[in-house]
Design goal:
InterPro entries: Ricin_B-like_lectins (IPR035992). By secondary structure, the protein is an alpha+beta fold. It has 7 helices and 12 strands.
């Protein structure tokens, strides 16, 4: 059941339950299903956790849900509360985690306590027995999706399809087996696959904050790139930084940085300047894509069609030129820091001014 104190709207679908999951992989798949059920973005979950006096950085959520290892208890508590679960439901998730950690088997369906058909099931904190096989099938689909970083998470059986008609499905981007909850990726210009889209600078010097550019992949250690679906074939391109949290690439529509892409801290699913349509270039090039900003329907390309390291990524007229051809490589989650959940004091959020870049002393993007 949802925690009425969380001020979240009631969902017509029942929240996923962890009673039948038996492995760390199944447990993290169930957490991903819970996040989809909640309908909250990583930023919103971070804010909900803060309201509960928990520390749950958005970057930690993305990293943890991208793994198949058992998350720590602190994460489970903060995450399930942020999703809107009441304390009794949080306790059930902790009990399932403890059972998996010590190697106890999951209970059989007929071992679960019946809730009856008198309508009291949802208030008891346990699923109606007849729904258990459906949950098991859904977890099985999710497991099939998480066997590799390129899997597609199928959780539709857990969610009410009327809740979010525009939500991405099991394969939210045609031709790219991205997870429904998002995937870590490297984006390469097809002409120069040894280069990656990452943080760079406007070489004209007219725009001083960080922008998207191509650099040697060996130098593009940070930020980590995360693609989060926000609609059919549409994603946010997020930059995750262990120090500065998350910035969403945003098309600049005017001013000195016009047509450049800048990471902004104000990530929202509704900002069309932060949405990009991923289009396959065809069956002859299965890993090649055009990337089109939704707000203008133009195409991303390299400024001046340059192949040099440091060339800025810009938007412009879709011409079919070679510099508008990108390779998208889905990769495993980055290695997490030793601390499972950094405190708010150790993970500063983006601000509009003070922090400076570790690269050259200029202000960090959107901070």
């Amino acid at each position: 059941m949802r925690d009425t104190g969380s001020h979240l709207a009631e969902s017509p679908a029942q929240a996923p339950k962890p009673a039948l999951v038996g492995t760390p992989t199944e447990f993290t798949a169930a957490l991903r299903a819970l996040r989809s059920w909640s309908g909250l973005t990583y930023r919103q979950l971070e804010a909900k956790a803060t309201a509960h006096t928990d520390s749950l950085p958005a970057s930690t959520i993305a990293t943890t849900l991208g793994r198949t290892t058992l998350p720590r208890e602190r994460f489970v508590v903060a995450f399930t509360r942020a999703c809107g679960l009441a304390e009794e439901d949080v306790r059930q998730w902790l009990e399932a985690r403890r059972r998996i950690a010590v190697g106890e088997p999951a209970p059989a369906v007929d071992e679960l306590e019946p809730t009856g058909d008198d309508g009291d099931g949802p208030d008891s904190g346990a699923s109606v027995p007849s729904r258990r096989p459906l949950w098991r099938r859904a977890v099985g689909l999710a497991l099939a999706a998480t066997t590799g970083a390129a899997g597609a998470l199928a959780i539709g059986g857990l969610l009410d399809s009327s809740k979010s008609p525009t939500a991405p499905g099991a394969m939210p981007v045609a031709g790219l087996r991205i997870l429904a909850v998002g995937s870590w990726a490297l984006i390469h210009p097809a002409r120069t696959p040894g280069l990656c889209l990452t943080e760079g600078r406007d070489r004209t010097g007219q725009y001083e904050t960080a922008v998207a550019a191509q650099r040697l992949c060996s130098k593009a250690v940070l930020p980590h790139v995360f693609l989060e679906p926000v609609g059919a074939d549409i994603v946010q391109i997020q930059w995750h930084h262990p120090k500065y949290s998350i910035g969403c690439l945003t098309v600049l529509l005017n001013g000195a940085g016009r047509d450049l892409l800048e990471p902004r801290e104000d990530c929202t699913d509704e900002n069309r300047a932060q949405q990009f349509r991923i289009e396959p270039l065809g069956p002859q090039a299965p890993t090649h894509f055009r990337i089109r900003p939704v707000i203008t329907d133009e195409c991303l390309s390299l400024r001046g069609q340059d192949v040099k390291e440091g060339t800025e990524v810009v938007q412009g007229r879709c011409s079919g030129a070679a510099d508008q051809d990108f390779l998208i490589e889905l990769i495993p989650p980055p290695q997490a820091p030793a601390a499972s959940l950094p405190t708010a004091a150790t993970v500063p959020h983006h601000s509009s001014s003070v922090p400076t870049s570790e690269h050259d002393g200029r202000p960090e993007p959107g901070r």
